[in-house]
Amino acid sequence: MLGQFKTLPQLLDYFRDELVCKDYLATHRWNGNTTCPFCGHDHIYITNRGYKCASKACHKKFSVTVGTIFENTKLPLRTWYAAIYLVTSHKKGISSLQLARDLGVDKKNAWFLLHRIRETFFDETPKLLTDVVSVDETFVGGKNKNRHADKKKENSQGGHSDDKTIVMGAMQIGGIVVTQIVPDRTADTLLPILDKVIVKGSMVVTDEHTGYFRVCDNFFHIAVNHKQGMYTKNAFSTNNIEGFWSLFKRGYIGIYHWMSPIHLDRYLKEFSYRYNSRTIADMNRFSDTVTRSNGKRLTWNRLTRKDVAAI
Length: 311
Description:
By secondary structure, this protein is α/β, with parallel strands linked by helices.
């Protein structure tokens, strides 16, 4: 395996210059079979400054970073790799302010860099959950009293208020977690999502919320009535998904302090990725993120919603 490191200093020692960084990216991106990011052609010329497609219909030049989260970056890949290691190894994440201080970059660059790393955590074909799956929703949004004056909501009492974002989560026992922002907690909203992410016939464990009453149509269903002081039923509970929400909110309060609803899904994917890869070493999580960077370019305009066509 390329690069054996267990700490950030060891990582920086290994990636001593840009050539080593580019070779590492090329290996994890193409695995010895370089392809054109524009047309997919696999006959490539190596040039003094990178690569050139040999296809007569293309003939475009490109570097190892084109078509990845690193495209058009002004930061050294070594700095990027340090950021990736910090993001993927810190259980509760790292804020843009802290990352800016650690890397010696300005806050805007750190914020953009973090969101580009989070882009790698989106799965186009996520694994389906099976066996026993616990499901629960949570309300995300800081306490109104702690918000800046321009973000305070009138008549907000906290709790399950309409100024918070609802997130549904499903977690396979001993397995992975899937999260999704939802507009409401009705059965018409929640049940189609469960049908999409859980294998039919699996055991689904929820609380007593009425939005889950029809879960038994496609799944075996156990409802644990929290309102009656019940937290397990026949040894089944929603403790594991509730534990994930606890971890997420510790990161929210302790690290980020506030998450924009516009970008909330990116933060959720970040926490989900770290949780779902919890059994592998930090080094392997780092290399997996570098591999996943291929085809995940994120522009500033798309991130900040200035590019209407990309919305």
